[in-house]
Amino acid sequence: MIAAGTEEAQRFRLLAVDDDQVRDDFAAAVRHGLLQRNKMLPCRYLYDARGSLLFEEICRQPEYYLTRAEQEILDARAGEIAARVPPDTTIVELGAGSAKKTRTLFDAFFSRAPGTRAPRLRYVPIDISRAMLAASGRRLVEEYPRLEVQALAAEYRAGLAALGPSEARPKLVLWLGSNVGNFRRADAARFLASVRRRLGAADRLLMGVDLRKSPAVLEAAYDDAAGVTARFNRNLLARINRELDGEFDLERFAHRARWHERRGAVELALVSVGAQRVAIRALGIELAFADGEAIHTESSYKYSAGELARLAAASGLRVETRWRDDAHRFALVLLAPRVTRARRRRAAARGRPVSPPARGR
Ligand code: AVJ
Known about the structure:
Blueprint (H helix, E strand, L loop, with lengths): L6 H4 L1 E5 L3 H15 L14 H10 L7 H19 L5 E5 L7 H9 L10 E7 L2 H14 L3 E7 L2 H6 L9 E5 L9 H12 L7 E7 L4 H7 L6 H17 L8 E8 L4 E8 L3 E5 L4 E5 L4 E8 L3 H10 L2 E8 L5 E8 L3 H9 L12
Parallel strand pairs: 1-4, 2-3, 2-5, 3-4, 5-6
Antiparallel strand pairs: 6-13, 7-8, 8-11, 9-10, 12-13
Helix pairs in contact: 3-10, 4-5
Bound molecules: N,N,N-trimethyl-histidine.
């Protein structure tokens, strides 16, 4: 714990958005999702306090290779990444969580110029979990004396909106952990385009992406032998029971993880064991489930090299560098804003032709 007024406290700020709306959203989303013909629940609600802890436990399961593969790439490339961005960079991280992987980058940043005085680094973690940000922010400023943490407890969109003018200072935006996998492909492009609009020409986006691979490996990653992912998935029903006075019998919903080749995604679902009726008292509804009927809970999209390049292009970005782990399971891509012809024309109109110079008249 950092006492108020200490030097560390001055380097750590946490700004929270009101989460009343998030609570109301949960009730509305559950009602809407479960009254549809194809029952579904939005995956963002998997990550309450308990769900976030379970997710961290998933990351330690032997079948869930994603976290280790990404860490392997960061260990190998952090120096190279740090060398690509200017010394006064702000690191903005979307879905920062406990910021464990980010430390690898901090270490690389702070050891960039040995012998000289280490530069200051500003870190803006954006995450929906206020508790996670509070704990990790405090630890970070204690560990790194030249780090300044300005945490934003917010959804991606609100967090990005709070960032301020795009050209203010050089920045590196991090979106790690293949969190992009939760978005349908078109939505991923729309979201990345909104990030792109906040990037200046020298700014970069570093994104971790899980790659397409054999269905057996993918399905095992989402159905670990220890049953952690199953517990993570069922926690969504437990959350409905806790927060909305629901009456789900968790034993009567089976965890299912299935690779869907055409979509290129692992689909998580909870499947009704037998026909049953379930009341959700706070919503005043009673649901009927047929035997084997599924509630879709999460999609995890995977990318090929071609799909990655198309995603970047559709978002106004280009892949500057792509690194992979030794087993080629996962990619870390450094994305740069693509300068469009329209942008070049506007720059020229302001008297700063980009290239090439106009021929003499
Ligand atoms: C946090 C979205 C990257 O899709 O791999 C892991 C979520 N769900 N196991 C993923 C998740 C079940 C995870 N992401």
